[in-house]
Design a protein that fits this description.
Elements: H1 4-25, H2 32-56, H3 64-86, E1 91-92, E2 95-96, H4 97-126
Helix pairs in contact: 1-2, 2-3, 3-4
Length: about 130
């Protein structure tokens, strides 16, 4: 039997593919509309199923709070990518904005992984 997570993920991939195709139709991936459609496709494919299942309150395999944390991380990372592409010629203290944002996102990912490991450990200690 196919799990609910798998069904929702397949639907998210179909939506993301549609967004990516629309993005390709509008020209350069650094222009406004294609960039936003491309960013939306990343958000849908990586976080779409988590957002949908969190809105439904489904914690069958992943706690709802963890779904929201992951979705926030993905939206933040994709937002940083959009800002980095849009303002690629800007530098901060002699370092390109893309580099600064990339390091910030890498730090967020590291913090996210550490927090999820800690939260999973705490849940196992509670017997949840």
């Amino acid at each position: 039997m196919v799990s609910r997570d798998t069904s929702v993920q397949v639907a998210a991939v179909v939506v993301a593919t549609t967004l990516a195709v629309l993005s390709a139709q509008f020209g350069s991936p650094t222009a406004g509309t294609p960039l936003l459609l491309g960013a939306a496709s990343y958000i849908v494919v990586f976080a779409g199923s988590h957002i949908y299942l969190a809105l439904r309150g489904d914690s069958e395999s992943v706690p709802v709070a963890a779904r929201w944390r992951f979705a926030a991380l993905v939206v933040t990372a994709v937002g940083a990518m959009v800002v980095g592409v849009t303002y690629r010629n800007v530098s901060v203290a002699g370092t390109g904005l893309g580099t600064v944002l990339g390091l910030g996102v890498a730090a967020l990912f590291a913090g996210y992984w550490l927090y999820e490991a800690w939260d999973g450990y705490q849940a196992s200690r509670r017997g949840a």
